[in-house]
Amino acid sequence: MQEIGKVLSILGEVRRRLVRIAMVLAPIFGFLITFELKPFPLRLLGRTIPFAYPWPNLFYNVTAQAFRALVQLELPSNVVLLNVGVGDSIMVQIEIGVLLTVILGMPWIIHEVGAFLVPALRRNEREMIRHIGLPATALFAVGTALGVFFITPLTFRLLFLYVAAMGLAPVLGVQQFVQFALLYSLAFGLVFELPVFVYSLTRLGVVRAATWRKHWRGAVIGSLVFGMLVTPDNSGITMLLIAAPMIALYFGGAWFASRWERRSTARRIGPSAVAG
To answer: I need a labelling partner for 15 at 20 to 30 A (CA). Which of 26, 104, 170, 219 fits?
Structure first.
């Protein structure tokens, strides 16, 4: 009965944290799908500063504005987007809204997850989380930004060069575009977390640094498989654009893991040598 009580207590805490997260994320999502941001030039000290204020609009809302910005940023100008399904435009707004909600609410999500996990962690695990928290967040932001601003636009340009070479009309369904753009960009954010994952497992003593170097061939194959799974098209180009940086980041993570392991060994040996 005592074990059941512990499980129920943990489930109750999980429910409480999820409710707290939902109480923050729900208003953010509601704002994104019911308001637009109207540009307003703000004059301050003789300078014009770009500014925007919210205005109710159920159709041309923030998610629609974000969609138009994505189209302008990532697609070649000659590509025509089609609303193939009746509800495609609604689903696109929901998908973009969910993504923006998670991004904007990520600090609160991390806070609640950390508050749930920290009491159950050992001292060295809490110390490691403090050390990797900022690098992990920065790497995810850098990877996602590279995906949105550079890699995804480059991929679309390359793919539509093949379309032009075949003499085909450059047409794309709106759902295909959004799913490709969001999934591909987020995949780069996840890929950039790989060094943190490798380093963390070594620091926790789960995987030795030599193991990462020994199984590099499996890492290369795994990177190719991951690139194949996360890219919604069937071309090898997108798979390689994901797999190549993933392989490089794997070796980078293995190097940092080896460096930490050498320093940790030196710190342990040092006092022992002095004592001897």
So the answer is: 104
What does the pLDDT look like over 30-87, one tens digit per residue? 999 999 999 888 777 778 787 888 999 999 999 999 999 999 999 998 999 999 888 8
Q: Given this model, what pLDDT does residue 232 score?
A: 61
- Domain boundary assignment for the chain: 194-265
Predicted model pTM? 0.77
CB 231 within 8 A of CB 184: yes
Angle between helices 194-203 and 123-146 in degrees, nearest 10: 170
Nearest to 151 by CA among 64, 243, 221, 15: 243
The single residue listed with the structure tokens 């003789």 is 46
| Residues of the chain predicted below pLDDT 70 | 1-2, 232-235, 270-276
- pLDDT confidence of residue 274: 44
- The burial of 40, by beta-carbon neighbours within 10 Å (0-12 exposed, 13-18 middle, 19 or more buried), is given as exposed
SS3 assignment for the chain: CHHHHHHHHHHHHHHHHHHHHHHHHHHHHHHHHHEEEEEEEEEECCEEEEEEEEEECCCCCHHHHHHHHHHHHHCCCCCEEECCCCCHHHHHHHHHHHHHHHHHHHHHHHHHHHHHHHHHCCHHHHHHHHHHHHHHHHHHHHHHHHHHHHHHHHHHHHHHHHHHHCCCCCEEEHHHHHHHHHHHHHHHHHHCCHHHHHHHHHHCCCCCHHHHHHCHHHHHHHHHHHHHHHCCCCCHHHHHHHHHHHHHHHHHHHHHHHHHHHHHHHHHHHHHHHHC
